[in-house]
Amino acid sequence: MPNHLLLGPSGGSISDVGGAGETRPLLTMIDVTRALSVVATARKVSDEEEEEEGGASSLNSAVSSVGGKRAERHGLAGDDHDAERACFRVVSDEEDGEGSRKKLRLSKDQSAVLEESFKKHSTLNPKQKLALAEQLNLRPRQVEVWFQNRRARTKLKQTEVDCEFLKKCCESLTKENRRLQKEVQELRALKLSPQLYKQMTPPTTLTMCPSCERVSNPATTSSPANPQPSGQHQYSNHDRQTTASWVPFPLEPLFLDSIPQRS
DNA sequence: CTGCTCGACTGCCTTACATCA
DNA sequence: AATGATGTAAGGCAGTCGAGC
């Protein structure tokens, strides 16, 4: 089943369209489409000159072998594909050496239209592909390739962003782990000397409710919206609280504040 | 000259559909 | 008629090449 048929009206993210058993990325997608489109539209090419000279025709002059694999596989050299053949004719007329892969640079306008289309849906159905190709005076194969490359590069960019984020998470967790280990060591040392143990103040991070004997973390039980005095616990409210809001241990690790936020 | 970007290609995988035993 | 095996078409992705800036 063609993957585009699986997509909803919005087209979905690229992680949705993998045909080969691709899974969703671990992390929420950050919109790198915008970033990439900025790069694309900011490209400094001599497109304007090209357009002034009639860019479309010059575009079609630079094409490589006959539509690549698809043409080979699906017999595009046959009579059913006049459009493709027409393009090929243009190429064979103007191209000198066989097998030479001339570089085509899409014009600014063409890129912009493709970008707009990609924003709407990252994959195209055959109709959309043909329409776009016609609109931009490109071969359907070129539109197809552009979308494939665009998906690949968006995914790559997203992977880089995710990687950076995970690195920062890892750093934070390592830091927090060291801190906790140090705390454990300190507590063990104190336990070995009962005199000091009696005199010590309660652990900095965890406190126990004397009424219910549950451990809690003052830092997490008081939210910014509902601030409690530092280290103070609303024991009298226990019977009014649901079990969901009062758990033996903090639901979120203390160090979450130090984990970088994804924008 | 070098590095980067990006259009194009290849090879492989998956899915849908048609055909046949 | 229903069913499983097989072949084909079509689409996607990863990896790569190479032209152009």
TrEMBL record:
<dbReference type="InterPro" id="IPR003106">
    <property type="entry name" value="Leu_zip_homeo"/>
</dbReference>
<feature type="region of interest" description="Disordered">
    <location>
        <begin position="43"/>
        <end position="78"/>
    </location>
</feature>
<dbReference type="InterPro" id="IPR009057">
    <property type="entry name" value="Homeodomain-like_sf"/>
</dbReference>
<feature type="region of interest" description="Disordered">
    <location>
        <begin position="208"/>
        <end position="243"/>
    </location>
</feature>
<protein>
    <recommendedName>
        <fullName>Homeobox domain-containing protein</fullName>
    </recommendedName>
</protein>
<feature type="coiled-coil region">
    <location>
        <begin position="163"/>
        <end position="193"/>
    </location>
</feature>
<keyword id="KW-0804">Transcription</keyword>
<dbReference type="Pfam" id="PF02183">
    <property type="entry name" value="HALZ"/>
</dbReference>
<feature type="DNA-binding region" description="Homeobox">
    <location>
        <begin position="99"/>
        <end position="158"/>
    </location>
</feature>
<keyword id="KW-0371">Homeobox</keyword>
<comment type="similarity">
    <text>Belongs to the HD-ZIP homeobox family. Class II subfamily.</text>
</comment>
<feature type="compositionally biased region" description="Polar residues">
    <location>
        <begin position="217"/>
        <end position="235"/>
    </location>
</feature>
<dbReference type="GO" id="GO:0043565">
    <property type="term" value="F:sequence-specific DNA binding"/>
</dbReference>
<dbReference type="InterPro" id="IPR001356">
    <property type="entry name" value="HD"/>
</dbReference>
<dbReference type="GO" id="GO:0005634">
    <property type="term" value="C:nucleus"/>
</dbReference>
<dbReference type="InterPro" id="IPR050762">
    <property type="entry name" value="HD-ZIP_Homeobox_LZ_Class_II"/>
</dbReference>
<keyword id="KW-0175">Coiled coil</keyword>
<dbReference type="Pfam" id="PF00046">
    <property type="entry name" value="Homeodomain"/>
</dbReference>
<dbReference type="InterPro" id="IPR006712">
    <property type="entry name" value="HD-ZIP_N"/>
</dbReference>
<dbReference type="Pfam" id="PF04618">
    <property type="entry name" value="HD-ZIP_N"/>
</dbReference>
<dbReference type="InterPro" id="IPR017970">
    <property type="entry name" value="Homeobox_CS"/>
</dbReference>
<feature type="compositionally biased region" description="Basic and acidic residues">
    <location>
        <begin position="69"/>
        <end position="78"/>
    </location>
</feature>
<feature type="domain" description="Homeobox">
    <location>
        <begin position="97"/>
        <end position="157"/>
    </location>
</feature>
<dbReference type="GO" id="GO:0000981">
    <property type="term" value="F:DNA-binding transcription factor activity, RNA polymerase II-specific"/>
</dbReference>
<keyword id="KW-0539">Nucleus</keyword>
<keyword id="KW-0805">Transcription regulation</keyword>
<keyword id="KW-0238">DNA-binding</keyword>
